[in-house]
Write a structure and sequence with these properties.
26% of the residues lie in helices and 34% in strands. It is an alpha+beta fold and 109 residues long. The protein has one domain: 2-Layer Sandwich (hypothetical protein PF0899 fold), CATH 3.30.2320. Belongs to the HypA/HybF family. Zn(2+) binds at residues 70, 73, 86, 88. Keywords: Metal-binding, Nickel, Zinc. Ni(2+) binds at residue 2.
């Protein structure tokens, strides 16, 4: 479960940004291609936050779809899964969204 390591980093970042103030809410943008399971992330965040300034903080997840640009179709397409192939069958694609894993905001008391 890689979500625990990610959650520990998120908590560390949030607490660092909070500079000693209690953390109330953390918003994280997560792309579909990161293989992060939202429910697992929420659970791991709560575990990682125990005993820190982020203990009891809410975790908001902004889930981003996987979007590719297909050079064959010359169009943006949403991927139905994590395999970077265009629905037309072309593998000549560029991933434009879906790899995000960013702390967007930290709300403190």
């Amino acid at each position: 479960m890689h979500e625990l390591a990610i959650a520990e980093n998120i908590v560390g970042t949030a607490c660092s940004r909070a500079a000693g103030r209690p953390v109330r809410r953390v918003t994280v943008r997560i792309g579909a291609l990161t293989a992060v399971v939202p429910d697992d992330m929420r659970f791991c965040f709560d575990v990682a936050a125990m005993g820190t300034a982020a203990h009891g903080a809410a975790l908001d997840l902004d889930l981003c779809p996987a979007i590719i640009f297909c050079r064959s179709c010359q169009a943006d397409k949403r991927l139905p899964d994590r395999i970077p192939l265009c629905p037309c069958g072309s593998a000549d694609v560029t991933v434009t969204t879906g790899r995000e894993l960013d702390v967007v905001s930290v709300e403190t008391a």
